[in-house]
Structure formats: structure tokens, C-alpha cells
User: What shape does this take?
Amino acid sequence: MSFFMEVLLGGLLAGVMYSLVAIGFVLIYKASGVFNFAQGSMVLFAALTFVSLLERGLPFWLAFVLSLLSMLLLALLLERLVLRHLVNRPPITLFMATLGLSYVVEGVAQALWGAQVHGLDLGIEDTPLELGGLMLSRFDLFAAGSAGLLVLLLSLLFNKTRIGLSLRAVADDQLAALAVGIRLQRMWVLVWAVAGLVGLVAGLLWGARLGVQFSLSLIVLKALPVLIIGGFTSIGGAIVGGLIVGASEKLAEVYLGPLLSGGIENWFPYVLALLFLLLRPAGLFGERAIERV
Amino acid sequence: MKNHLHTLKGAVVLALGLAAASATAQAGGEQYFPLQSYRVGPYAAGGTGFFGGFIDYLQYVNIKEGGVNGVKLTWSECETEYVVEKGVECYERLKKGLNGAPAAATNPLSVGIAYATLERSTADKLPLITINHGRTDSTDGSVFPYVFPLQLNPYSEVSAIINYIGQKSGGLAKLKGKKIAVLYHGSPYGKETNPILELLSKKYGFQLVSLEVPHPGNEQQSQWLTIRQQKPDWVILRGWGVMNPVALKTAQKTGYPADHIIGNIWSNSEEDAAPAGAAAKGFISITTHPSGSQFPVLQGIKKTVLDAGKGNLADPKRFGTVYYNLGVVNGILNVEAVRLAQAKFGKKPLTGEQVRWGFEHLHFDDKRLKEVGALGLLQPLQLSCADHEGGGAVRFQQWDGQQWKVISPWVQADRKLLRPIIEDSSHKYAKEKGITPRDCSKES
Assistant: This one.
């Protein structure tokens, strides 16, 4: 039983890490209806910038602030060079644009900072922690706490500030938001910058786990089933979706894996996601599309 | 006027002819290495190190010796990003040589690209070098005349690891009753040695626990919890890329000691251990070539190439790292093959077919290793028509938190045990493809 609990808790904590990436998608989708395939590349860009600055002798917080500024600059460039020219285009056009962007951002990140693999030590010891006879990871607990704090801050931003109100208005109806004087371009820059901040936090936590390297951009593959299950428009949904994906993939790998010759945890969450698409297409917390016919 | 025109035309034709002849003569004096390199993408760290070392060695031979017996070495790169289709495209683009300089061999450093270009290489009579990797049965040169898994094939790799564990346990007989887990990358590369490990487990009586990690391997919680539950005496890590540091970090998280994890040949670089930080301290891996820059050949490269500002590495701190040194070793083997082939076919640029002869006659003993400044860097090895691996030995190294330290002498694979298995597989391939194996006893 304790082994089962360890697998389950380990999976839930891993799921929080997936949620961190998924939140970046949700933010942009909520505000602009764009499924930003470049989120993984943004995570890579942010982490690579941070660790490269750190290795050049900058103190932690200065490297963090400069990395954040680089994400803001990236957001400005994306809005000015790409998004502005694609207003009112079909969603598939915007999606394809972000697909292209993901390759551009990856290429620019490697051209700027090189292809070398970097270690990243956040100063959190990752030795096992015994709690009630269960062995848990200190680092994963820290990551879960960071994700919780981030969700809290984002909820405050969305629900308690004028900016949040404007963002929600843009998400509801872009034309109506424009009509009441909300500056759409500014909101887009803002939301892409916030997604950049989420990318930076995710990049640091994932980078400390994997090393800062190209594979960071592949973590989007873990976020996709999370989004389908939790819904594309809910930050809470991203958290719940992450927990479901994390726990189910670990339990499936340990208990079903040996029956299916192992290595199933990559595709098992997609089986769950497909089931959700069939039974609840908007996900657990997503907004159902209501259309006048 | 007409005469003047004729004279002018004649002068132009003569000048063009001389220029062409001079270009041909210059190109005719060069031996070309087509490089299917990867400097961007997920595996760029390995690619930049390996191809950096390879190019620096070619450069070193050109500067120090004026090429091989006066034949300058030349090369050009084609970016594959480690993608098989791009690798094949690069192969087709580069195989014909460069400005008349014939191609010596291809060195893609990619299992996927090697598999995809294997038959083309044979048809084009251009050696395909898969140093430390590739198809195990291509060791049998009677069936695979143009493929060379130099130094170490995958079967030898696991056999040597089991022999080392046997040594640490007090003899191979002591393996009986032990439990060994293998954590392998979920790809044909990762799975290739599973049948051999099963065979060895039956032979020596140890229990084998096989666990697959799906690509790319950035999440391994469930595998390491299973390892913790199974309590193996040793874990063999057959990883690649991000899978390696994640394995070490997750091992620490679940309380498994790093000094009982043995990494294979693609889990043995600084890029595999350093990102795991303190979790990697004590981690053991195999190597065919130690890292470090103390070897005379590396000192020569430093003085002649790097200090002259002609080095290929973007980051000079990577000089002497595992991937860089593998590139240098690969360069030594390629250049030696050209040198040997020149001794037979003449001191001129050679065809791929002629260079293949050179590879099949590679022979490095301690004397020759000392002459090329690579004693201790490269294992003694001898190739033949039947044996395209040549070495089959590894040393073991341990990560001290900052760098690798060699902790064992050469440990040999059980090549006698493996040879019939390799031949079974190669003969099956020959039958499938309608190949009549060469009679190696008649080859000179």
C-alpha cells in the first residue's frame, strides 16, 4: 500500500510540473483564443537566458529580472512583427504562426546562447524526505508550492485588478473590448509577457530537474493532455488536469506497463485525453462554446 | 584584326585551360571528408563536441604534416539536426566529393542516419563509420564490407559492463543470485542489447530487471520507484541526451546510490553528468577514451590549432571533454585508414573503396599509439575483413562532481561468446538481402 501511495503522490507532484507549463498555454488562449504552440520554446528561451546570465557572474535576482525583461522584449516583438498582422484571421492561421514561431525561438535561443547543456542549481536539496513512512521529493514539494503561489498571483491579477478585468473583456469579445476603449495590442503584449513569466518559472523548475537544454522545449508534449482534460480556458483546470495526468501516467506505468511491455507513460495520458474529447470536449473546467444557430 | 581576335581567343582558352588544370591539380591533391554534422537541435551538445574534435584533428594533420603524405585533408559540413531524412539528404549531396577531391568515408554519429545510409554506402563503395555505436552485426565485415562500428559495438558494451560488475563482486561466479536492472531508452538503440543481457543473465545466473524509459526521458519517477522496490545490486543506464541527468536526479530522489549506476557509452559525457549536479557524484560509466588534455596529440592540437585561433569549438572550455576527445579519436582512426591505404594504393587522394582497405587493416599497438601521441587515449585495436570492430574493450570512469576520473584498466568484452550471435544475425541479413558473404581467408 505504501508503494502505491508513493507512486500516486510522486505522480501528483510531477503533475504539478506539467500544470506549470499548461498555465502558459491557458493564459494566451484565454486572452486571445490562440493556441500558442511556441510556449515550450519560450520556456527554453527563458531558462537558457537565465542560466547563461548566471554563468556570466550575474547574481540570481539580477539574472531573473533580466530574463524577465528579455521575455517582455520577446512579447513586444511577437506582437509587433507577427500578431498585429494576423488580427481577425482564422484560429488555424494563428496556430500555424505560433508553430513557426516555436522553431524561430528555438533557433534564436541556440544562436544566442549556444547548444551546450547547462546545470542549474536553485539551492533546493533534492534528497528524499520521509513523511509518514512515505518517501517524497523535497524539490517536487518546492515546485508544487511555487506553482500554487503562481496560481494565486495569477488569480489575483485576473480577478482583482483593472488589467485582469480588461484581459477578461478581451477574452470574452475582442470587438466589444475595442469598442469600450481597451487597447487590444497592449493587452496582447501584457498577456504574452505574463506567459513569458510563467515560462521563466517553469523553465527554472524544469531546468533544475533536467538541466537547461534543448529538451526543455519538448515538455509541451506533457502539457497537451493536461489542457484537453482540464480545459483550455481555466487555470484551475490546468492544475487539476496536471494532477490527473501525473497520477494516472505513473500508476499506469507501474501497474499496466509490465503487461504492455513497458514505456507506456508517454501515450497513456493521450488515451485519457481522447476519452475526455469524446465525453467532455471542453474539458473539466473549460468554457463550452455556445453558438447561435 | 581577325588574327588579333584569334590570338585573343587563343589566349583566353589557354588561360581558362591553365586555370582549370591548376584547380584540378589542387583539388586532385586533397582527400575529402563529408561531415553530416549537427550543431543545432536537441543533440547539438554532442554534435558540436564530436565534430569539433574531428575537424581540429584534421586541421592539426594539415598544419603539422601538410596533410597525409602531402595530400591535404579537406571537409565540408551539412547540418542534419540529427534528423534521419536530413542525414540522408546530406549523404547524397556530399558523397561525390568536393571540387574533385574524393570522399574518404562518412561519419554521421547517429544510429538512425547510419541505418538509413547503410545500403547506400555499400552501393556507393563509401565506408560508413559508426564509432562506438551502430548495428552490432555490421562487425562482421564479410557481410557488411563498408560498415565499421569501430572500437566498440553495443553487444561488447554490455558484455564488458557485466564483466566489470563480476570483477567488483569477486568473480563472474559471484554474479549468481545478484539482481541487475537495466534502464533503457525506449528506442531501437536502447533495446538493442536486451537479448544479450538476457543471455548473460542465464549464463551467469543473475536476475535481470528491464525497465523502459519513453523518449525523451524527462520523467522517470515510476521507473525509479520500481527500482527502489526491486532493490537491484546495480543499475545499467542505457540512456541518451536528457534521459541521463534525469535518471541521476531521480535516483537521488528515490534514494538509489549513484555509485551503483553504470552508464553506457552514450551516458558517459560531461553533458550527461554535470546537469545532474550533486546527484551525479559517484556515478560510474564506461568509456573508450578518457577525457582530459594531457595526451601528446591533444597538446599538439592545442598548440598548433587552438592557440593559433583555428580551433573549431565555439567554447574553448570544451577542449578535452568526452565528446571532443571522441571526435579526435575518430579523426585518428580515419586518418590512419587513409595513411595505410596510401601505402598500398599510392600517395594520392583515394576512393572510398581504397580507404575501406585502410580501415580493414587498422592496427594500433602501443608503439603506433605512442607515435600518434594517443597512448592511453585510444585502446590497442586491430581490424580485419571479418572484424570491423577491432577493440571491444572499455575503461570505467567515475564522476567526482566536477570531472571524470578513470577508475579501471581496460576491461574486455567476451567477444568469443558474442561472435556466433553476431554471425547468426549477419548471415540472416545476408540471406534476406541476397548477399554472398566475402571469403575473408582470401582477402589480403
